[in-house]
Specification:
single chain, 88 residues, flat
Length: 88
């Protein structure tokens, strides 16, 4: 009787599943450790960002508001423009 090792695709799926399970458990346990005051403030922040209209989202308009997507976004290649955008 020969044991056939899993294919490379199967190994990749097993690894991704393990990583996903670990991350879910880690994030859930982290969330449970956060004080409720912090959670309510975080919810308020996300709510205030979510309701900004398109005009307020545009940092080029100079009003100081940025969208949640811009907060999460990669700043891009280092350069004068990207550094100034991140500083503002």
């Amino acid at each position: 009787m020969n044991i056939v090792p899993p294919t490379a695709d199967r190994i990749e799926r097993i690894i991704k599943t393990a990583i996903h399970s670990y991350e879910e458990q880690f994030f859930q346990s982290t969330l449970e450790k956060l004080p409720s005051v912090f959670l309510s403030k975080l919810d308020s922040l996300v709510d205030s960002i979510a309701f900004l209209d398109d005009e307020q989202d545009d940092p080029s308009k100079g009003n100081g508001f940025i969208s949640f997507q811009e907060i999460k976004a990669d700043p891009g290649k280092p350069g004068v423009e990207s550094v100034l955008r991140e500083v503002s």
